Amino acid sequence: MQAVAIDFETANESRTSACSIGVAWIEDGRVVETEEHLIRPREMRFNPFNTAVHGLRAEDVAGAPEFPEVWHRFARRLEGRLVLAHNASFDISVLRHTLDDYGLEWPACHYLCTVVLARKAWPQLAAHKLNYLADHLGIALDHHHAGSDAEACGRIALAAARVLGLERLGDIAAATGITFGQLAPGGYSPCKGGNPPPRRRRLVPVI
């Protein structure tokens, strides 16, 4: 199964305020290409908190295209691939809301949250944030730059598959109990982490 890792940065708290997208294309078990595109949000309101995180300001994206132009550059290539995102509930939400905002059709694809996957692959780690995992795995990361974040996300997924003894990312669901999220023009379902191992029952002696 071919895959693609995505990452959004937003201008403010709105899920329709994407100001940057990173895309890392994965083929034959490796990241083969990484893209980063600035996006001019429909509402040019940059929250100081968001700017403090990713460094982007209104003037940085004033000459950038709006989302539909950026989306059409790779939307067809994304169809049918497994989409990876670190904290997918955020990135897939940004994608859904922004597509809706512009009246664009949702793509048909499965998606996987690499936070959920990392918890399966490295349960012993104290945290599973992108920068923590990148440091643990020796992956270069310019954090909160969308292209770098997307590439790190893809490399984390590939590393997790190796740790789990899997040859393909598509085998993750069957091997781990993770349920891939699904996105389609008719709706979506979230990625789920599967059931935790059952707790041992403590026997209480009868007196």
Summarize the structure.
The protein has 207 residues and is an alpha/beta fold.
Textual characterization of the structure:
Helices cover 37% and strands 21% of the residues. The chain is α/β, with parallel strands linked by helices and 207 residues long. α4 links the parallel β4 and β5. α5 runs parallel beside α7 and α6 packs across α7. The protein is globular and about 45 Å long. The C terminus is likely disordered.
What is the makeup of the main sheet?
7 strands, mixed
Gross morphology is: globular
Roughly how many Å is the radius of gyration?
Answer: 18 Å
What are the segments in which pLDDT stays under 50 over at least 5 consecutive residues?
A: 196-207
Task: Give structural attributes.
7-stranded mixed beta sheet; 7 strands; 21% strand; 207 residues; globular; alpha/beta
Topology:
Blueprint: E1 3-10, E2 18-27, E3 30-38, H1 48-54, H2 58-61, H3 67-78, E4 82-85, H4 88-101, E5 109-113, H5 114-121, H6 130-137, H7 146-163, H8 172-176, E6 181-184, E7 187-189
Parallel strand pairs: 1-4, 4-5
Antiparallel strand pairs: 1-2, 2-3, 5-6, 6-7
Helix pairs in contact: 5-7, 6-7
